[in-house]
Automatic annotation (TrEMBL), chain A:
InterPro entries: Aromatic_CoA_ox/epox, Ferritin-like, Ferritin-like_SF, PaaA, PaaA_PaaC. This is Phenylacetate-CoA oxygenase subunit PaaA. SUPFAM superfamilies: Ferritin-like. The lineage of its organism: Bacteria, Bacillati, Bacillota, Bacilli, Bacillales. The gene is paaA. GO terms for cellular component: cytosol. One of its GO terms (molecular function) is phenylacetyl-CoA 1,2-epoxidase activity.
Amino acid sequence: MANMVSFDRLSEEEKHARFMERIAAGEKIEADDWMPEEYRVALIKLISMHGISEIMGALPEKEWVPKAPTLRRKLGIMAKVQDEMGHGQLLLRVAEDLMKPYGKNREDIMQDLFSGDLKFHNVFHMPAPTWGDAGLIGWLVDGAAIITQTNMLHASYGPYARALQRICAEEVFHAQHGEAIIMALTEGTQEQRAMVQDAFNRWWESLLMFFGPAQASTTGSSKQDVTIKYNIRTKTNEELRQDFFSKYIPRALSIGLQLPDSTMHFDEESKMWVYQQPDWNKFKQIIKNNGPKSKERLRLRQLSYHNNEWVREALSPMNKVV
Amino acid sequence: MMTIEELHTNPAYQDALVDLLYQLADDDFIVAYRGSEWLGLAPHIEEDVAFSSISQDTMGHATMLYELLESIGEGDANALAHARKADERKNAILLEMVNGSGTYLQEPKYDWAFAVVRHYCYTLAKTIKMKSLQQSSFEPLAQLAVKINMELHYHLLHWKTWFTQLMKIPGESQERMVAAWDRVMKDMKGVLALGSYEEDLVKYNVMTNETQLMHSWMQEMQSLISNYHLPIEVRLKMNSGNGRLGEHSKDLEDALNTLSSVYRIDPTAAW
Amino acid sequence: MEAKKAFYQEYEVFSKRTYKSPFQHQFSLLAPNEEIAMVMAQENFMRREPVVDIWVVKRSEVRKLDETERFALQRLDNKQYRSTKGYGYLKKKWREYEQNMLDEKEILSWGGDGKQ
């Protein structure tokens, strides 16, 4: 390849071969570089879903921002939810640059969200009815997110890897913010302890679903093969779920929580956690925006989008008067 | 200069000071609460992030002020923020008003023009107060004012940018902004009001008087209006009542119910 | 629709962490104009770190290398004459004259009387 005269004159096959060479060598692909259509499409799907999930993920926690029980907790959860929005910003910027060749931008992402074409993560369709949920989301949902995101820190796509670098650094604060709320509750009154166990039970199935089904056949589609082929991530859904169990089950038990799945145990021979599968049909329904809070949260986003339409129209450089 | 230790030697000074501290703390607390309700609902994601920082800073200022009250014997800072009833609160009524119809969880129809105008007008007033308080005879407050003032530069720049841009664009944008301006003017005087201890505050050099505050505020605003050729006039009024005297609207009661809902489950528990 | 889409202009954000440090690229953001871009910059990308200065640059004003042009960045590893590497033998020579070599570390320490 070193004697190449012009990249543009290469055949598609040669471009593809060079692309695979670059990612095999650990080079990072940048936004304006040539990339296989399959790679671009997989990245757009993965990153726009990741980004919009951060934005939608701010909503269940946002519920608890004004209600947080002390001044310190009010500040902490505000900063945490702000970060979620911030992560959404970083990720959507990465997705938007990938969509540019199709003439799409953030406006289209929002429209895709409202039409149901762009899905958001299963956990953010669920209710968060108590302060215990606010803590549990911070601790375990963010914990699960850390597991999947750190798995992609070395992704072949440079802008995504760089966004994840920023995100994971902030997730460390999120995890500790969640742990702090949970520990204050488990070390507190009986009512406070019950609040945590209750939230744990409520979130258990969603946490299992978080990593997606082990095989594509379970739900009919999965991005995991393509993303592994192109060095976007390295571990399978099940490997990530097992990592999550290994890190968090012992911690949950140590602070006196009971596992919602009484059959769950670690199998010494296979070195795997054995657990009861969640209802994957329910999962399919949830991510199709048929979860308990899907409609309500979409409505919130839609309303804010429409209420502020005049601002975007007024400031559009196409209405140049300023 | 007055210190915390010497306060008890002058009860009149202490009464006036405590009243002022409640005004400052309650103003920041409730306006930061209103800001936090906006989280996730701003015109675009970048602004959501920026606005949230301002709400956090402001809640941080409220926290420092409640802690100062705690240190002069008014009780636990968290209780001061969460457990006081509406008629004990000293914030200006303008700052407790809802962001729009609906709640932050159900059908929020929030008005960005009102948010921009209210926050800009408030930040300008706060900046002027902090400037005066840097000379305060109460030393801990003078020091706090220096700190708070540091963060106000950004708040002011941020809101001024939105304010001047949206106010200048003819059509819907200007109409909404002028309408929001008129609404804010109707109660802006309440933000600059100093309550029933004004005389003592001035007498003991805790801070400057109300007339001076209003004069400075109007002067600053007037120069902005002429520099940017904005289609508005300054007319300070206090139509809805004087929050400094404990007069408040139902909006405040609703807000207090929400913001203390977890705290009230068990005020003695550690959260 | 087009007017609404145009609200989202792309800006690149650069910042300096300390007075001594060079500007560093942070990330990109969307804003309708550079004034709004400027008031978004710090809180979006530098919430937790010190900043002493910020630049925002409209993305369309940045001239970037394309993939072919980036080949122009390659060079051979035969340019020791440009660096101190090609003059390393001087150390031994100076030792013969019982002198120390004035190397990079020594020379760069001269400014400011050894104070940082």
